From TrEMBL, chains A, B:
Compartments it resides in: Mitochondrion
Record's function text: Catalyzes the pyridoxal-phosphate-dependent breakdown of phosphoethanolamine, converting it to ammonia, inorganic phosphate and acetaldehyde.
PROSITE patterns: AA_TRANSFER_CLASS_3
Family according to the record: Belongs to the class-III pyridoxal-phosphate-dependent aminotransferase family.
Lineage: Eukaryota, Metazoa, Chordata, Craniata, Vertebrata
GO cellular component: mitochondrion
Protein name (database record): Ethanolamine-phosphate phospho-lyase
Enzyme class: lyase
GO molecular function, one term: transaminase activity
Primary location: mitochondrion
């Protein structure tokens, strides 16, 4: 990215510009179709069919009905309508600190947002499960079986809701999926932040759950059009038929217009042509390995986690107490910006440095940003009088948690089982594991 | 428009392609900005400021805060959130047959949609006022004062809601605005269908209410980007400050991106450069005058109404009983399509032919479509054995209603007072008069 004076910035945050800012193939596809025809969705156009086919080819065959809309928020709102209609109930299980969008129905299911409201305003149909965070969450890495413990939380919510008379609930978190399905609920996978190859090893983050895991509804957004306002909901014929049976037509003026579809097609083509998913694996792994080296040097780095090119670095003042280093994270962001690097901090405590760069991010880019983080952390730690060795020692005494490279690099080495238990960032969207809350 | 075989169609329905399909200025603006930069709304860009300023210049100065979003539905949902927050209550008055969008909060306030649901599913905070339709509505042209009668309906709703303890309601229909304001409610003008000069005499349909009438919130959509997914909510500083005071940041990933703003700017420029608002006055007036001539010939035409290039022709089997001629309307649409003209039917009875062409629609285009409608109606009436004179006579006996040219042409001759009382189409969006429900 370049600012208004032509200054170059290294962009570590624009996950919307998925295949790279102003990728010529995407620009060309959009411009050509704009010149030719752009109608609303009452008109059929080949692009709509071609795009639906190409998108479906990336998904399990059961997910075969596409609804094209304009934003992740529209997608998640439609997903709720589909789920409500299919199950006949309004109960929703969502994760702590989740964010699913800005329209009013989604504020209701976004603790990241609704925690700012008074209790009276909370929707009684919305049930919040703890986020499966093994670093700072309810069940941590030293727990014998955090996956089951988090899943049981979902099970408990289901049982409690059942007692109140509501038989079915739907969207929920990863490991709880089985319980939700057993209770007749549906599983909504919110891929708005993490879809389209960002996790590297898979095209969709829900696929980290295993090849046999198929959500009932998948929502997509941000990266889908490389910045163009578009999004999509994909579901099964069963869910779509239940929705159609209401007789209420779903109409969306801009959704699925030929320009959006041309752009969507170009994005899918570029992901394959430029091997961006492979790049996410390779550069993501390199990024984590370089960050792990920094963790060995800097006591402020408490945890490194993520998949592919979606990586979080949690800063703490104390590796045992996990005191969030929010001011320090902000300082890193500001200092990096002065040095022409864009990075952001996130998480409920705003102490997680969040890497979600365009997917063409390179190893050289990793070197540039990590080197500068190294300098900034060194200065910060000098100023704060923090030293590593004593902290590291305490950490090793503190529990069963392994130190350094081991923990997170196994995450990056396509260790899917590990990856499953490491959702991380806040403000990312989640109803499901690929939450990264 | 051209189909996949290159066949030309005369387009009488694409109000989204506001300044004409693929207008070169709009395509160029979009393509150039796509090549240069397209970021999400966390980044400031001159286009955002320039566009907000240019849009604001078309509005009363009190409406000074813009929120950029991606669709009319997102805009109306945000308008609800603003209204709820500002007034502290959730009651909403909406009009019969209104349609305000497809997200779940808007289905609640869209009788056009929610009439398809069971009573149990209706939102108790939503109150439906009769649509001020003087042709087929509760108070008609033969009523001594339909405007006051419709306004009193709103007043009655407000009093009833007050008794239930809810002190404030907001969005409502035209003539009831005074009552809503007095009760501390806010007035939302939904301009998604009718804004940007379509009504001809004014840039915004709410301005038909008089120069001193200023809504609290205005929502925009469809024509704003000539097909590009974008929309806007404009409100007062009072409403915006109340919303900000919650501390909940409003963030929209795609809203206000530099490409959308570049396109929005180009659309505003073309409206002025090509005098499309003036064209809407002139061609709209000519369209109505030509349709009135058809009404003198064809008993199937019951009513002609609208403003500028938003015109409806209501077909009836009987001008006294007003029996909706839905099948005949459908037949007209199909026959026109065979002859390469696109027109649609709408209204709660699907018997209103709805003209909302791109704003570059010409007098020659009017001649082409009206001539073909003439032939089709002649054939239909021959087949049905309908004759005009007897019907016309009955109509004159039936009430005080004037016949033919007089009624609707006065509408078109910028007779705003009349125009106010003739909202018409269904499926158009409305919380306010510019409903055209």
């Amino acid at each position: 990215m370049y600012d208004e004076k032509g200054q170059r910035y290294l962009d570590c945050i624009n996950n919307v510009a998925h295949v790279g800012h102003c990728h010529p193939d995407v620009v060309k596809a959009g411009a050509q179709q704009m010149e030719q025809l752009n109608t609303n969705s009452r008109f059929l156009h080949d692009n709509l069919v071609l795009y639906a086919q190409k998108l479906q080819a990336t998904l399990p065959s059961k997910l075969s009905v596409c609804y094209f809309v304009n934003s992740g928020s529209e997608a998640n709102d439609l997903a709720l309508r589909l789920a409500w209609q299919y199950t006949g109930h309004k109960d929703i299980i969502t994760l702590e600190n989740a964010y699913h969008g800005h329209v009013s129905s989604l504020i209701d299911i976004s603790p990241y947002k609704f925690h700012q409201l008074s209790d009276a305003e909370h929707n009684p149909s919305v049930h919040v499960a703890p986020s499966p965070d093994v670093y700072r969450g309810k069940y941590r890495a030293d727990h014998p079986d955090p996956a089951t413990a988090y899943a049981d939380e979902v099970k408990n919510i289901i049982e409690k809701v059942d007692k109140k008379g509501a038989a079915i609930r739907r969207s929920t978190c990863c490991t709880g999926a089985k319980h939700v399905r057993e209770a007749g609920g549906v599983f909504i996978a919110d891929e708005v932040q993490v879809g389209f190859g960002r996790v590297g090893s898979h095209f969709w983050a829900f696929q980290l759950q295993g090849d046999d895991f198929v959500p009932d509804i998948v929502t997509m957004g941000k990266p889908i059009g490389n910045g163009h306002p578009m999004s999509c909901v994909v579901t099964t014929t069963e869910v779509a038929e239940a929705f159609m049976s209401t007789g209420m037509e779903y109409f969306n003026t801009f959704g699925g217009n030929p320009v959006s579809c041309a752009i969507g097609l170009a994005v899918l083509d570029v992901i394959v042509k430029d091997d961006l998913q492979g790049n996410a694996v390779r550069v993501g792994r390199y990024l984590v390995s370089q960050l792990e080296k920094q963790k060995e040097k800097h006591s402020l780095i408490g945890d490194i986690r993520g998949c592919g090119l979606f990586v979080g670095v949690e800063l703490v003042r104390d590796r045992v107490k996990l005191t969030p280093a929010a001011a320090e994270a902000q300082e890193v962001i500001y200092k990096l910006k002065e040095q022409h690097i864009l990075l952001s901090a996130d998480g409920p405590h705003r102490n997680v440095l969040k890497f979600k760069p365009p997917m063409c991010f390179s190893a050289e880019d990793v070197d540039e940003v990590v080197q500068k983080i190294d300098h900034i952390l060194t200065e910060l730690e000098d100023a704060l009088g923090l030293k590593l060795h004593s902290v590291s020692d305490k950490e090793n005494e503190g529990g069963k948690r392994k130190v350094g490279v081991t923990t997170a690099s196994c995450l990056m080495q396509s260790d899917e089982k590990k990856c499953k238990c490491f959702p991380t960032f806040s403000s990312a969207l989640n109803i499901i594991f690929n939450s990264f809350s």
